[in-house]
Amino acid sequence: LCSLNTDDSLAGQNVAISAGGTHEAIDPVRFIGNNSSGRFGVALAREAQRRGATVTLVAANVDTNVLKEARGVAVKPVVSARDLQGQMQQAALSADIVIMASAVADFRPASESSHKQKKDGTEKRTLELVENPDILAGLAHDRSGKNQVVIGFAAETGDESGSVLEYGRAKAARKGADLMVINEVGVTRGFGNVDTAITIIDRAGNIHGNGQGTKAEMAGVLFDTILQWQESK
Ligand code: CTP
Ligand code: CA
């Protein structure tokens, strides 16, 4: 009845999106995690679906109330970085657009204890960590020859030795993704249900889009930028 809410700008395209934050198990009841809500990734899934795409959302520990926003999207729930890598590799096989909007733990415990760890009277304890695979870099590398756009995210705060954009440029170059979404995080924006400021750059650091607003609006800005990118190829 009402078609105002939809368009077909992504009709015929498969979009694979990861959202949320990974949990790396220490023992059966404990993990190393992060405070990514998954809201941006879910907003992206919803926007891609609204534009007519076939969407796979690989959701790392995303709250069911947040996931509800992406009703109708094929959701692959995952817990750890290695789970997420497996599902994204699978989804990427048939994807035209691959977006890593998840917060992947850089390290995981070297071993997972099969039983709950107990206190043992010592005041200090060391947890050995090993590096997780760089999923985005792997996806960007593995698509060789395929006409696929790969997009990464970088949440940066900036500090005394570099601005948000400088850090983002370096990251874009390192990852080999086509586009990086630089997401400025701080006290008042970025995490949680608040407005977001993004800048979208390519590997050379050229700016292809930017905006500030709700996550839904920024999802629109990103897909507009991706469509322009595809047209320019
Ligand atoms: N990413 C990934 N695999 C990892 C770490 C990050 O695929 N093991 C992806 C994220 O999903 C994001 C992008 O890489 O799309 C940038 O993540 P970020 O944490 O900002 O970059 P890192 O390379 O981990 O650098 P650092 O945390 O040291 O800033
Ligand atoms: Ca990281």
Report on the structure:
The protein is of the alpha/beta class and 233 residues long. 28% of the residues lie in helices and 27% in strands. The protein contains six helices and twelve strands. It has helices at residues 39-50, 64-67, 81-92, 135-142, 164-175, 215-232, and strands spanning 14-20, 24-27, 30-32, 54-60, 74-78, 97-100, 107-109, 129-131, 149-156, 179-184, 196-202, 207-213. The two termini are 36 Å apart. The model has no long low-confidence stretch (mean pLDDT 91). The site of cytidine-5'-triphosphate has 14 residues, from helix 4 and strand 9. One of its GO terms (biological process) is pantothenate catabolic process.
Order of helices and strands, N to C?
EEEHEHEHEEEHEHEEEH
Residue share in helix: 25-40%
Radius of gyration: 18 Å
Question: Which small-molecule species are bound to the chains here?
Answer: cytidine-5'-triphosphate, calcium ion
Query: What is the structural class?
Result: alpha/beta
What coarse outline follows from CA principal-axis ratios? globular
Distance between the termini: 36 Å
Poorly predicted tracts of residues = none
Q: What kind of oligomer do you see?
A: single chain
Q: Give the strand line-up of the largest sheet.
A: 5-4-1-6-9-10-11-12
- Estimate the strand proportion: 25-35%
- The mean pLDDT is 91
Q: What is the tally of beta strands?
A: 12
User: What's the number of helices?
Assistant: 6
What can be said about the biggest beta sheet?
Answer: 8 strands, mixed
Function: Catalyzes two sequential steps in the biosynthesis of coenzyme A. In the first step cysteine is conjugated to 4'-phosphopantothenate to form 4-phosphopantothenoylcysteine. In the second step the latter compound is decarboxylated to form 4'-phosphopantotheine.
Protein name: Coenzyme A biosynthesis bifunctional protein CoaBC
GO molecular function: FMN binding; metal ion binding; phosphopantothenate--cysteine ligase activity; phosphopantothenoylcysteine decarboxylase activity
Family: In the C-terminal section; belongs to the PPC synthetase family. In the N-terminal section; belongs to the HFCD (homo-oligomeric flavin containing Cys decarboxylase) superfamily.
